[in-house]
Write the structure tokens for this entry.
Amino acid sequence: MTTTLRVLIVDDEALARSRLRTLLGDCTAPAASVAAEAAHAVQAMDALRREVFDVVLLDIRMPGADGITLAQTIAQLPQPPAVVFVTAHSEHAVQAFEIEAVDYLTKPVRLERLQQALQKVERLVHAGKGLEADLTEECLIIQDRGRTERVPLAEVLYLKAELKYITVRTAAKSYILDGSLNELEERYPQFMRIHRNALVARRAVRALEKHFDPEEGDGWAVRLNGIGELLAVSRRQLGTVREAIAG
């Protein structure tokens, strides 16, 4: 199925809008058509009331209402288009994903990254679900070397505190998250405390085994589906883990 996405560009800089127009003209999978442009939030809302768009390419720092505020307003529309932020400022990425932006591109935008963002929008359009249906899945927002990524909680096997950071482990990869293990435990009950420094996904626990730890001596550890690594279980949490495995 061939799709040409209808795009609204919102950026207060004319050169930035021109640059995006040029890049969009080079997009082929899917193709994209610039249906309207706006230099600020008021113009953008006027366009959104007049026409239907598949996606808004949205700057953040603009005169008047900023892009974050505008995105929140767009989300209240009866049929909101997808929002892709395009900005020179990477520090707003977490906030952008919290309001369910499809993607977050930093200037200067590369054609490859723009095409990837449009492919995400295309999947939403083809599915006919609207933005919410694709993004209701709970995710952790990971920032690493200038890249921001949504890691679905359903893929996370364990969360482990290491010095000032938390290791987020999936079957395929490890990530580093800045945060508090206690806060994650309170927020996500699908994870179980097995040690003062570790939470594991309840669904991923495969077995409880005898284990020798060089620091703590003889004890117990859990084996998780998807990885070979064993995680130590503290004596304090042993009863809880046994109950969880027993169902």
User: Anything to note?
Assistant: The first helix runs from residue 14 to 26. Residues 105 and 246 are 46 Å apart (CA to CA). The two ends are 46 Å apart (CA to CA).
